[in-house]
Amino acid sequence: MGNADTKLHFRKAVIQLTTKTQPVEATDNVFWDQFWAECSIAVQDVFALVPAAEIRAVREESPSNLATLCYKAVERLVQCADSGCPSEKERQIVLNCTRLLTRILPYIFEDADWRGFFWSTIPGTKKSGSLDEGADENEARPLAESLLLTIADLLFCPDFTVQSHKKNNPDASEEMRSIDSCEYIWEAGVGFAQSPPLNYIHDLNRTELLKLLLTCFSEAMYLSPLSDSQVLNPWVSFFCSAENRHALPLFTSLLNVVCSYDPVGYGIPYNHLLFSDYREQLVEQALQVLIVTLEHETGSAVSAALQALDSSSSNPPEELEPAGPDNLFVNYLSRIHREEDLSFVLRGFAQLLNNPLIQTYLPRSTKKIHFHQELLILFWKCCDFNKKFLFFVLKSSDVLEMLVPILFYLNDARADQSRVGLMHIGVFILLLLSGERNFGVRLNKPYTLRVPMDIPVFTGTHADLLIVIFHKIITCGHQRLHPLFDCLLTIIVNISPYLKSLSMVAANKLLHLLEAFSMPWYLLSAPQNHNLVFFLLEVFNNIIQYQFDGNFNLVYAIIRKRNVFHQLANLPTDEGSIQKTLQKKKKKSGISRLNSTDGESMEGSRPAAPAEPGTLKATLEATPGIDKITEKSQVSEDGTMIALPRSSSPATPPHRGAINGASDTESNSERDHEVFTRSQTSRSRMSSVSSTVAWTANSDWMLSWKSRLPLQTIMRLLQVLVPQVEKICIDKGLTDESEILRFLQHGTLVGLLPVPHPILIRKYQANSGTAMWFRTYMWGVIYLRNVDPPIWYDTDIRLFEIQRI
């Protein structure tokens, strides 16, 4: 009964607010206290009892009342934080104000005229509880700053969100003023050794405050992607600045809570069905706050400072004021350097990302986490902002602990249109890793795990696993994955010079891709499709020139499919043949129609499923082309990489100098612009639909790239080995391929091949296009994952659209 009365009183207060035509004075505490001081209102009840339509009505018809409500709620939070929340009633007021502001803020952000409200000062007021000498300064503090600083204070409030260290219960307000929050870090890990006792009430309170913090940061959702992407989120900028005295302990707390979380616990079957795991809610919220706060300007002084931090060989003393980015969260992340800290972070990522792969005899007996997309974004940011972490990941086989779950997610999501963003982030991470030599070298480790995946059974290395899954994505994925094809092949190109021994399964998959991409009708379907052929030929050339010994399976596959290379060399380029092929093209529907004998899938695997009808998805920005997000580096003889200028190719044999980075099928390409100019064609690549209307293949265009096909090395290999293999087969009457493989295994092409070409690696390079893609993807994930309560549901989001499948 009490609970019903509580809701009734609260609802009456809301109705009074929405029906009052005259402004309510800020001094009328009896009226305003109805919203937070009477009793506890659950967050779900706040969302149900304060409907969206009524918030908008107050905003339009009684703007001063909405402004006063926000101001009074922040004022009460400030008062409670200053007092240290000594009583249960004050803690309840904090939670009620937090829930109410979480409900209202999105409706402030959706109206452009209101967005500046929280950054204005309230005339004639001063921050309660401020010291006398600081009163003037506090009078001028915008409401947003007061709110953010108060949330930070409350996140380190003894007996509310952290364990009190004082035994004799001193004055709570004195403790809040003198608190050193570095002693109250929430969890052991980076920079903190003690693990405080678990307290689920503290975890719940932290979660509510972090939810409000995330809502403050979500103003970014209400700005269109076309608005200036270089302008940083003012809420994030202030919260992560030196103005926030809790920046370091809070960053460390969030990171440590995420990386130390163990969803399985002691491994008791079905324990997650018997007990509520309040830590999981906190971990999800901490992770989302972390990925939002770790933002910085692309190509700015911040980037330069980050690079300077990475390149400095000496580690600055911890007690010095940090140099580098103004965003202290980015700054602190970029400065993590101790081996034990890097190991702790990597172990945390690996444990959580591998969680859905855990196999048990009892179905659904272990807890499965669902925040893997946020984890992948955080892992990306760690590698991007902290090169020491990236090199630590790559220096041992621990990188494979990250690779396997990423490949698992890619394979699992390939048929689901609602998970296109997950496919992109996984591929971007692998592209980033593939730019480092160590990644290719680590992939030679045998793959012995048996994670059930819908792929053919094979015996081989982690490189084989990667190639088999990439083949599956290309041949069995949905249409919206086409822009990723050149990214996938770029990764294979980057690792190819280091692959010691491909399995027969992987070798056949590569040849099948070449066969598919070199079909005349496919080559003529879009102006950049031929680049996929260039990438695959580069893979074969790298392996033949640098890893011939040990790759007899691939050599055998090339010999068996030699007609594909001969057909490529003899592609007709006359207008008549092109028109005939274009007529046939209309009967074709895609790469997947080419038969690929996959054989039996792994035991226990299930096919990749499309999205359930009605599934919500957030739209994404188009990703820039591969030539925009990578820069070419040439590997010198001593193993160092030399960056190549974008405008020119290295001084290499003619067939190599012509291989430029392929371009994504949803973006512009400088190189192809030159080709189009020669063939009197110009067009936008933002839409593959419009591209087919605006562009038609012709003879000049075909000749421009066919003459550059790097076929010399492969043709020389075929010229030498095919007669030898045919002779052995005739002389010995061989029908068993194992004998041929044995012959190839002991063969050599030393002195018979052209001079080895320099190894060309395409390293990921950040730019404004990818920064905007990451922003829309990140906020889309956060929007869809926060459904209880649905913080942003039915508000006027502009950064992306929510669509039903």
TrEMBL record:
One of its GO terms (cellular component) is Golgi medial cisterna. Transmembrane segments: none annotated. InterPro entries: Hid-1/Ecm30. Residues 579-617, 644-683 are annotated as: Disordered. PANTHER family: PROTEIN HID1 (PTHR21575:SF12). This is HID1 domain containing.
